[in-house]
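# step 3/5: fold
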Amino acid sequence: MLPEAKKGTILYIEDNSDNRNLIRRVLGAEGYSVVDAINAMQAIEKLESGSFDLILMDINMPDMDGYTLTAKIKGMKNYSNIPILAVTANVMRGDREKSLEAGCDGYIQKPIDIDAIGQQIERFISRSNNV
């Protein structure tokens, strides 16, 4: 059973525990419920057992990179409309475009700006709710 979220429920797919804890604290304080997945397999399991308003996708993961997992999720009928934001330290020219080409709806670069992430997420959740 997922905790009740005032603003929405976010699936955060991230293999680094420090990053997961930071996002959970920051977004939890802003009224979001954050559910963690540490790899692609766990992310698919969580998607199948819950309802999510947005996915934060780490791009550099050991088992399956975020580009591949994003494409897989976007190809799944029940989840294709959930906005996916790439969260990555890949900030070279072309990395943002590569995330968008893989199916991500947006891009947040690491280190995460904890003062801005809530607004970025709210913009994508409200946009998807208006579709």
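# step 4/5: annotate
The mean pLDDT is 89.
# step 5/5: archive (pending)
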